[in-house]
Description:
By secondary structure, chain A is mostly helical. Chain A has helices at 3-16, 28-35, 39-51, 70-91, 97-111, 118-133, 139-156, 166-181, 185-209; strands at 25-26, 56-57, 63-64. In chain A, strands 1-3-2 form a three-stranded antiparallel beta sheet. Chain A is globular, with a radius of gyration of 19 Å. Chain A binds a DNA duplex through helix 3.
Amino acid sequence: MLKKQQLYLQLKQDIQQGIWPAGIQLTQQQLAEHYAVSRIPVRDVMQQLQAEAWLIPYGKAGLMVPPLTAVEAEELYQIRLQLEPMALQLAVPHLNFSQLGQAEDLLMQITRRPDASLFERGELNWQFHLLLYQPCQRPHLLRMLTGLHQQVARYLGFQEQAMDYSDISHQEHWQLIELLRQNKPDAAAELLYQHIAKAGELLVQHLQLHPA
Amino acid sequence: MLKKQQLYLQLKQDIQQGIWPAGIQLTQQQLAEHYAVSRIPVRDVMQQLQAEAWLIPYGKAGLMVPPLTAVEAEELYQIRLQLEPMALQLAVPHLNFSQLGQAEDLLMQITRRPDASLFERGELNWQFHLLLYQPCQRPHLLRMLTGLHQQVARYLGFQEQAMDYSDISHQEHWQLIELLRQNKPDAAAELLYQHIAKAGELLVQHLQLHPA
DNA sequence: TTGACTAAAAATGTATACATTTTTAAATTA
DNA sequence: TAATTTAAAAATGTATACATTTTTAGTCAA
């Protein structure tokens, strides 16, 4: 595998795990030394992560991991709230039963793993959502949603704590499938809206109580 | 000035001008030779433009300029329609008269240049919109809107043709300012929605009649 | 002719070396 | 002391050289 790709995944994971704390300066040299590669792949990866807003400018020189804040989390969820119900509505006309079936399989997988970490649960969750959005055939929209998800994923860290939400959230997923199966796009979009809104509020509250 | 920055601006402009036609393969070597620099800055710039979706994968190797299509334009405007009224609403509480004044100055500038190309007019237009969104204090939202604008700007190319819309569009800008001055955020957001919707429809129609 | 294998060529990835810019810290002067 | 200048150090930008991968073209065998 290419060093660039390895490094990309590794650095991202390390950021999530807090190995590179928010707010401290990261330089090419530092990272090149730490990961034992030359600065060239480091440059590539840093630039890519900056484009994805996983790294932001540190003053004039270098980059840093952006701090996690309730304010930012709220922003991310406000945007999701505008885009995801739209994506779902656009996807509905192209959604077939085989795709709904795949989504159900995913939900079963989640059910079978009550021991998963918050992060792992978040990933499966997103896979479920994405499966429903994919058929909308809007590359830019899907690209932006994927970026948003990855931003949100930072907030899930690798924390083990559950946020006392999984049960309700899970129920709503099954309801969503049911509404889609019955071809009720408006009701599905509305449920999705409330679903995301609730998750957002919970995360924001959590962050206000336990600042990162 | 850094070669990377120069190259970034130059390549972007050249893409807009159609010097690198949509659908043909672009390689690092090719561009490095053409712009008389080494592959290093070319790599950086290509990667950045890929992140902004100004370049997309060409099969397995290399990148290409994505074709301009009515379908894509419609997608971009659908997303703007979801995000920009929200940005405006969020900005309203922080909008002060000095910012409204700046926006008015911009409108006057546009008025004084009826000879500007479609592209130049589009830029001034965007400066106006952005000025109203900036105070929303949502970095991700502003980043996404900026990206969307740049995508849309590709569609304005360097065409000289007006699309017979400037007058109405311009009037609506003044109306928008007026509503904001009167502190009517909902009405302003609604006007903005219709404003963007009309512009989008016009662009899509234009593309359907004159495919790129 | 077709298909698979092989060698050549081209493109990309990465390291090293050097150039340029930026930062830092020391030294000088008011 | 405080401010300014200057020299050193550190970081980044870029070119060249080399390694690796991918494509292409051609050859041979069925």
